[in-house]
Amino acid sequence: MASVLRSLSGPTDLRRLGDAELTELATEIRQLLLESVAANGGHLGPNLGVVELTIALHRVFESPRDRIVWDTGHQSYVHKMLTGRADGFATLRQEGGLSGYPSRSESDHDWVENSHASTSLSYADGLARAYQLQGRDDHVVAVIGDGALTGGMAWEAINNIAADPHRRVVIVVNDNGRSYTPTVGGLANKLTEIRTNPRYEPTLTAIRERLTSGHRIGEVAYEALHAVKKGVKDALAPQGMFEDLGIKYIGPVDGHDRTAMEQALLAAKRFGGPVLVHAITTKGQGYDIAVANENDQMHQSHPFDLATGEATTVAPAGWTSVFRDEIVRIADERPDVVGITAAMLYPVGLDAFADKFPDRVFDVGIAEQHAVTSAAGLAMGGLHPVVAVYATFLNRAFDQVLLDVALHRCGVTFVLDRAGVTGDDGASHNGMWDLSLLQLVPGLHLAAPRDGGQLRELLREAVAIDDAPSVVRFAKGAVGPDIEAVDRVGTIDVLRRDAAADVLFVGVGPLAQVALDAADHLAVDGVASTVVDPRWVKPLDPAITDLARRHRIVVTVEDNGRQGGVGATVAQTLHDAGVSVPVRIHGITQEFLDHAKRGVILERLGLTPDAVASDTRSALSGLDTGNTQQG
Ligand SMILES: Cc1ncc(C[n+]2csc(CCOP(=O)(O)OP(=O)(O)O)c2C)c(N)n1
Ligand SMILES: CC(=O)[C@@H](O)[C@H](O)COP(=O)(O)O
Ligand SMILES: [Mg+2]
């Protein structure tokens, strides 16, 4: 690793560096970002875009006494390098290595680990209120992207922060005009105007020259200029909106001009009340291949070749690509079907639909709550919306699913990508909640396809439901070969049927293959099994009770938290039907999982054929000795 970065033991060392060293530091940081993300994958574009901004932040503010909160946290690599963790970047996002997001166990400089967007300003408001009550004069800084600023929570926080002229919160808007794709919405349009309006700077220069060239140089002229400048700026950008709310606006500032950033941040630090610094940056700055990448400016990269920017590991056709193709076929047949994305058009696979039917796919920004309730509105208006989000991000819209969609029996289909263990992005990204949360929603239909063929079939069954919410959830990454059923009982697929079977395996989604392989392991010991895939895990087909009655034990396997998941639902269903067959529930332990590869985590959780077979063997022998332990 290079010299200036190596010489830093923490952010205070930044203040002894001169301009030349600081410029060299920025170069070295970019080189380390490129090397470590090319090797490990990660968020290249966002971090290349905040190099100067982060250096300026840590020179002006005194972390950790001053709290710096990163919204979403995917752009905190530079912050990590400047707070003593540059050496760790060889292990970025690896098991036991550096997390790709802030991590309290890594550093006292890190505060928020949740990578769900739009939360930073609420943390900042809370921290600042605490400081006010304790009479502390420390500073709170929240760095929020233009994308995250489209999230509803951000505006709830702004409403509160602006309420008190003494609330010492510095909001740094990192405005690069992009989430993955260009950020959308009225606010984004105004921010875009200020970034790209050629009139803005020459107009101000011309006014300043005219006013200062006349005889009225001095306060009056300055005030006139200031009033006109503000007038011009108001015409171009929403900072008047912020100031009208009670938040001082500073900017727009070139976020790659470290000196300008430091001046703006110093002014904000001295302001002593709610203040917003509007930084204009470029995602991918310093790596032209990223800047030129139309899809997402290398927002989230797999390991790649530095020379070409091309991924070095070609990801096999995944679940998302199956959905991407099938939703276009459905859209061809069903003019009432429309798509909704929360700023993730490509990652959720709605891009092909949007290309073919641009008027029928809506990007609402990072606004999942709005997405869900506006979908209810679309359904009430006679359309059939398909809301495509990552499973974990639906959590924040649970109330909207429950009471805006289900209560009104709206025909809305939710497609949950990245359901189950995702791994690399840490605890807040695993889609381990939906099979539990959605079990609570009256009337909702919930499907977990085991392969691509079932995804296509279940998606069609879902969009055919027009009087209730329907959900289809699938995992991150590669999709296995289709698993043929030997029979179908009600909505349940029978995948294996041994004669006089002792064990009934209930394999959910892609873990149906784990159940099949575990049955193979047991067959070697002479243990016979039936393996079923419920397909619709809600409502669970009542045939499950008759199937269970004919076995000595039921073993469920799912890629969701154990608490309240499919296994728990099966156990409750059997209990309610008076079927006393013991149930072994295999799922994700109900805890926050540290980052690691999906396969490593599944192994650690015992969601493998060996582990499931071994547990089943001991459960069966327990039955033989009279120990009928549920679990
Ligand atoms: C609630 C939620 N929805 C979606 C995402 C996925 N996501 C991660 S970063 C990102 C874009 C963020 O854009 P912005 O805030 O402008 O930050 P930038 O990457 O441009 O620095 C999105 C949509 C998320 N993290 N949280
Ligand atoms: C930060 C964020 O929420 C996403 O960018 C996340 O990294 C998703 O990654 P995948 O799309 O690779 O699952
Ligand atoms: Mg952005």
Query: In angstroms, what is the radius of gyration?
Result: 27 Å
Work out the number of β strands. Answer: 18
Q: Assign a percent range to the helix content.
A: 40-55%
* CATH first level of the largest domain: Alpha Beta
CATH topology of the largest domain: Rossmann fold
Structural class: alpha/beta
CATH superfamily of the largest domain: Thiamin diphosphate (ThDP)-binding fold, Pyr/PP domains
Low-confidence stretches: 232-238
Descriptive overview:
This protein is an alpha/beta fold. It folds into three domains: 3-292, Rossmann fold, CATH 3.40.50; 319-473, Thiamin diphosphate (ThDP)-binding fold, Pyr/PP domains (Rossmann fold, 3-Layer(aba) Sandwich); 494-624, Rossmann fold (3-Layer(aba) Sandwich), CATH 3.40.50.920. The strands form three sheets. It has a seven-stranded mixed sheet, with helices on both faces. A six-stranded mixed sheet has the order 12-13-15-14-17-18, sandwiched between helices. Strand 6 (337-341), helix 15 and strand 7 (361-363) form a beta-alpha-beta unit. Helix 4 packs across helix 12 and helix 21 (512-524) crosses helix 25 (609-624). The radius of gyration is 27 Å and the shape is globular. The model is unreliable at 232-238 (pLDDT under 50). The chain binds thiamine diphosphate, 1-deoxy-D-xylulose-5-phosphate and magnesium ion. Thiamine diphosphate binds at residues 46, 72, 74-75, 115-117, 145-148, 174, 176, 178-180, 183, 283, 299, 342-344, 366, 368, 393.
